[in-house]
Write a structure and sequence with these properties.
The complex is a heterodimer of chains A (about 200) and B (about 240). With about 200 residues, chain A is mainly beta. Chain A is about 10% helix and about 55% strand. An 8-stranded antiparallel β-barrel of chain A has the order 1-2-3-4-5-7-8-10. Chain B has helices at about 5-15, 30-35, 45-50, 85, 90-100, 120-125, 205-230; strands at about 60-70, 100-105, 130-145, 165-180, 185-200. The chains are: A mainly beta (about 200), B alpha/beta (about 240).
Chain lengths: ~200, ~240
């Protein structure tokens, strides 16, 4: 079912690809299980937490005014360090690829959307006394719900402040339990003018 | 923490609160400005000169026709005059020739036109020994909006088959007939062509297709208008 949903999203993406805009998102998330409860070690990182950096494209599915529907394809990096002690630093890194579908109200300048995300290369690494926490998690599939208040940028395009919630679980062959990576993420997004 | 049901309820309520999905309408003022070939002048001397101009056409007269294209915008032209558009006035030209109102009708092609203001076009027409110059220009706008079924697009899949999107395209064509020698304005005519389309979001016609269709309607209307006016203004 998840794969069908993902393919459906992807099959719709080229429809109005003539009017794309670039999208850049930066955010910080918090939430999920504490990783040390699964891996041991002395660090404080939650599975959903981290700094989010995404780049992508947005394109209209229904380029109607003022009620517009658009899709956004993003790829980037999600990372959380625990560097309280440099010699035993841990890093929780993921590479998300996501496809979001937005309702964009151009009159009142906000957009709300939902979508899917796929996290690759989900790795927890540590050094020093935390070297044993190293875990390679399987790729994970999740869902996103997002809302943003948009503003016009003086130099063209728009920018927005938003919140998103991600539902995702991580599994690793070395762990007996699933790690809850759900997170609430505050985001800052910049959309260029369409080209 | 909010449950999924509560989140869905809140989102649905937000959508319902700002329902209302009519067309925003066309800005005809802006379209007419785009289709204009001459900026208005408020200089007293120029007004007096224009007033003193007299009709000066021989019978029959040689007519040059110029189709003025749209301005270059965002790296492309929103539309363009096609050969079919240009030849749509052939029938009118033939009729005017049969009635010996005009002796010859020929186009001014873009490659020999340097500037597209009336003065420069009159000069180009003069080089072709034309007595009168007909300038045809146009402007277009497409308004896309959703109808009440468009709200189903929230579920994404309906964008493939629900006809919840609508597009209205307008094309305003304007024509003016000038005396090449003294700049006397014999007539102006204007017409509109409006085309409506209802479609599933994923498969709608492009802006260019809609503009082409509305341009064709508008040109057809203009032809009828011009026929009446040129016969009325015949020398």
């Amino acid at each position: 079912m998840r794969i069908i949903l993902f393919i459906l999203f992807l099959s719709l993406t080229p429809i109005k690809a003539k009017a794309m805009a670039l999208a850049f998102t930066m955010g910080y998330g918090h939430g999920g299980d504490s990783l040390k409860d699964f891996t041991g070690g002395d660090f404080n990182t939650k599975a959903g937490s981290g700094l989010l950096l995404l780049g992508g494209v947005t394109f209209p599915i229904s380029p109607t005014v003022p009620h517009r529907f658009e899709a956004q394809l993003n790829a980037g990096f999600l990372m959380q360090d625990d560097a309280r002690k440099e010699e035993s630093k841990t890093t929780w890194a993921r590479w998300p690829v996501e496809l979001l579908y937005y309702y964009n109200n151009l009159r009142n300048q906000y957009r709300v959307g939902y979508g899917v995300t796929y996290h690759f290369h989900n790795r927890l690494t540590g050094k020093g006394e935390n070297a044993s926490v190293q875990t390679n998690f399987d790729n994970a599939f999740g869902y996103i719900l997002a809302a943003e208040k948009m503003f016009d940028a003086n130099i063209g395009g728009t920018w927005g402040l938003g919140l998103r919630y991600t539902w995702i679980d991580y599994k690793a062959p070395t762990l007996t339990r699933t790690v809850n990576g759900n997170a609430l993420i505050a985001t800052f997004t910049v959309l260029t003018d369409e080209f | 923490m909010l449950s999924i049901q509560k989140i869905v309820f809140l989102l649905s309520a937000a959508f319902l609160l700002q329902m209302g999905c009519a067309s925003k309408g066309f800005n005809r003022g802006s379209l007419k400005e785009q289709a204009a070939v001459n900026k208005p002048s408020f200089d007293d001397k120029e007004i007096k000169e224009a007033f003193n101009k007299k009709p000066n056409l021989p019978k029959p007269f040689k007519l040059a026709v110029y189709f003025k294209g749209p301005a270059w915008k965002n790296g492309s032209y929103a539309w363009r005059w096609t050969d079919q558009d240009k030849s749509s006035l052939d029938e009118l030209a033939k009729e005017l020739k049969d009635e010996r109102i005009v002796s010859e009708v020929f186009p001014l092609i873009d490659s020999i036109v340097e500037e597209t203001d009336v003065r420069s076009l009159r000069l180009t027409a003069a080089k072709h020994q034309a007595d009168a110059l007909l300038i045809v220009s146009g402007a277009s706008e497409v308004d896309r909006y959703i109808n009440k079924w468009g709200w189903s697009y929230i579920l994404l899949v309906p964008t493939l088959f629900v006809q919840g999107s609508e597009a209205d395209a307008i094309f305003v064509t304007s024509a003016s007939l000038w005396d090449v020698k003294n700049g006397y304005l014999y007539l102006t005519a204007e017409s509109e062509g409006i085309v409506k389309d209802k479609y599933a979001a994923a498969f709608g016609k492009s802006d260019k297709d809609l503009m082409n269709e509305s341009r064709s309607v508008s040109l057809n209307n203009l032809k009828q208008e011009l026929k009446k006016m040129i016969k009325g203004a015949k020398p």
